Amino acid sequence: MGAQKPAGHGGDRHSGDDLFHVIATKEKELEGLVATARDEAAALTAQARSDAERTAREAREQAAQLAREHEARIAAEVAEIQREVDQKANAEVEALRQQAAEGLDAGVRLVVEHVLKD
Length: 118
Hints:
The protein is mainly α. The protein is 89% helix and 0% strand. The protein has 1 helix and no strands. It starts with 12 loop residues before the first helix and ends with a helix. Mean pLDDT is 87; it is low at 1-8.
């Protein structure tokens, strides 16, 4: 009976080669998984950046639209106030003209009476 080699001490060379082959294969699989994960992360980052830019652009457009609407409302209110002020000023001018006309009539009558008395 021949002496047997203890397990793990220079045993079968083919089993060691097989182990290295399995390790190398697993490393390649893991490298592929890491590369795929990196690609997916890059794609997700690009998509997130694109979504953020779109959201920011839409927010700027909405803010600009709201500003235009607000400015239009203010302009309409200012125009209405100006119209009311103009109407009031015209009414006051007309009242003053009537008072002046009445005063003029009274003044003319007074002058005429004064001249006729003499």
